[in-house]
Amino acid sequence: MVKMTGAEAIVEMLKRQKVKHIFGIPGGATLDLYDVLYNSGLRIILARHEQGAAHMADGYARISGIPGVCTATSGPGGTNLVTGIATAYMDSSPVIALTGQVNSQAVNSSYLIGRDAFQEADIIGITMPITKQNFQVKKAKEIPSVFKEAFYIASTGRLGPVVIDLPKNTQKESAEMDFSSPVKIRGYNPIYIPDPVQIRRAVELLCNAERPIMLAGGGVIASNASHEAVKLAEAILMPITTTLMGKGVIPENHSLSLGLLGMHGTIVANKLLHETDVLLNVGARFSDRTTGTLDDFCPDAKIIHIDIDAAEIGKNFKVDLSIVADAKRTLIEICKQITQKMIRKERSVWFDRIQQFKERYKDLLIKEGGLKPPKLMVELRKLVPNNTIVATGVGQCQMWAALYFKAVEPRTFITSGGLGTMGFGLPAALGAKVARPDVPVINIDGDGSFRMTEQELATSVLEDIPVIVIILNNSMLGMVAQWQRLFYGRRYASSELKDSPDFVKLAEAYGVNGVRVGSVKEFVNAVKEGLNNDVTTVIDVPISPEEDVWPMVPAGAGLRDVIWSAEKKK
To answer: What is the CB-side half-sphere exposure of residue 496 using CA atoms within 13 A?
Structure first.
């Protein structure tokens, strides 16, 4: 037992959880905490907006695999975190959000929680639907146990964000702190070890399959099971298609990679999925953007679903066999039993069909001439090392990057999938760079998405976090405009961004490098220069407002109905 203030106990617990970086903005309700952090040895990264701090912590978590920590003061500070917390929740990212709160008991006759005090907001009630768990500290002595539970919950089972609300008086008051008590959470027991009976059934289905496909989601990356997924795929010549969160599970230049599945999935993945006789879903949740209309999803296939979250089994799609367990342990066991039962395949009719399909649609949408985003993504891939990290905004920029920038390593492509949060790209890239300062980090953004969190360029400069920002600038809310173009008679209702600033001057105003390019050659040179700069480089890439993202599955259609031009739509 050690006597110290609540703020001192918070910092001690952060150190014990091996936290090295904290992203946030201080305020009146967190002054005591920040005062202790001042000489703590922890790196405190000052964001310019709390949403940015949450996305930085999220990006840090996705790249490092350990919880990212963000802080905000009470009231608007906490509510500004909400979008970032919801983003992390939808994509199962382990974020710890520390929020200040007004006093929970009388201190010098000050207001208590529940009296609508200055900058009071019920952050517990607000974040309950978008967190794995949230806590409000009532007394300073609770801090060690609360922090242990919070980090344990965030980083086990299906990963996710946890909020710890810290009333100001609990930061100030002193108490005897017990740092030795073990974590005990009644009713919370994540299942990691797969059921052997279900494993045997899965092995039997896969061994008898003639046209198997694996759908790999973010759960594969979260459990560090990419190697095991590829090993199993190679053993039985099972191609792998991925969700947006699963991008990077298999090198996308691998002969068994089908690329992205879904609304903006590859032609090959979307068409071949309907020929499979066994679909092995590992760590994906059958989201609407991945499946298209469920009535036409894998109509003739047996479906195996592996997920650590039992709540996902059967939630969106009825399956034939479920395994609730850790993806890595499950794939190891399946691969072990399969290799005992059958000889490794070197060739098959299914494998040959896959290669024929890939050859048929190879480079179909990579057009020469002008600043075409697919071509730029291909050129970018040639320029940067395999371990380069890409973080994207949301919209057309996101889909162009997901489709045409080939990820070859896990944890090198991060984006807001479930929530689709515009503004995610830049702050997430900064968090990723803090996690991996040794590799290049690139934010591929649209002008609309970039403008939502552009202020974090200041954080990049003052905290010495250099990244490359590529703005695919069409002076439009691009994806909105694409839908209006295709389905609403080209009526661009509130989607034209006619007031777009000069992004080169904006970059210079923040103290970073800014360059506008007019050709592919200039783009290549700008990226090369950015890779060698020790400050952030913003590359403004003017593109036509008429550019569409292809392929595309129209809303309400099945994956086999994928189209790849406006003419095909007709």
So the answer is: 9
Active site residues: 50, 118-119, 168, 479
How many beta carbons lie within 10 A of that of residue 125, not counting itself? 9
pLDDT for residue 226: 98
At residue 570, the pLDDT reads 45
Is the separation of the CB atoms in 407 and 390 below 8 Å?
Answer: yes
CATH architecture of 2-177: 3-Layer(aba) Sandwich (3.40)
SS3 (DSSP) at 262: coil
Measure the CA angle with vertex 7, ends 12 and 435; round to 5°: 55
Closest CA to 520 of 364, 372, 402: 372
Q: Is the peptide bond before 551 cis (omega within 30 degrees of 0)?
A: yes
Can 2-177 and 196-360 be said to share one CATH topology?
yes
Tell me, letter by letter, the H, E, C secondary structure of 225-258: CHHHHHHHHHHHCCCEEECCCCCCCCCCCCCCEE
Are the C-beta atoms of 439 and 389 separated by less than 8 Å?
A: yes
pTM above 0.70, yes or no: yes
194 pLDDT band, cuts 50/70/90, is: very high
Burial 457-487 (b: 16+ CB within 10 A, else e): bbbbeebebbbbbbbbbbbbbbbbbbbbbee
Hey, CA dihedral for 17, 18, 21, 27, is it positive or negative?
positive
Could you tell me the strand order of the sheet in which 240-242 lies?
257-260, 240-242, 212-216, 278-282, 302-307, 321-324
Contact 228, 335 (CB under 8 A): yes
User: Rounded to the nearest 5°, which phi and psi values hold at 4?
Assistant: -160, 170
Cβ distance 74 to 120 under 8 Å? yes
CATH 3.40.50.970 fits 373-549, yes or no: yes
**Vertex 215 angle, CA 212 and 220, to 5°:** 125
CA distance 366 to 7: 55
Q: Which two tokens stand for residue 39?
A: 């000489």
What are the tokens at 366? 């990579």
Q: What is the mean pLDDT of residues 144-159?
A: 97
The CATH class that applies to domain 196-360 reads alpha beta
Q: Identify any residues that bridge with 446 across adjacent strands, giving them in sequence order.
A: 472
Contact 158, 92 (CB under 8 A): yes
Q: Exposed e or buried b for every residue in 35-51, given b needs 16+ CB within 10 A?
A: ebbeebebeebebbbbb
Distance (Å, whole) CA 76 – CA 220: 36
CA of residue 208 relative to chain centroid, distance: 35
Calculate the alpha carbon distances from 183 to 136, 188, 235, 538, 555 in Å.
17, 11, 40, 46, 46
* Paired tokens of 331: 């794939």
The β-bridge relationship of strands 302-307 and 278-282 is parallel
Maximum alpha-carbon separation in the chain: 79
Cα separations (Å) of 182 from 157, 279, 373?
18, 41, 52
257 phi, psi to nearest 5 deg: -85, 130
Number of Cβ atoms within 10 Å of the Cβ of 311: 10
Instruction: Give the dihedral sign, CA 326/328/332/338.
Output: positive
- The three-class DSSP label of residue 483 is helix
Report domain extents, the chain: 2-177, 196-360, 373-549
Q: What is the pLDDT of residues 47-69, one digit of tens each?
A: 999 999 999 999 999 999 999 99
| DSSP β-bridge partners for residue 2 | 177
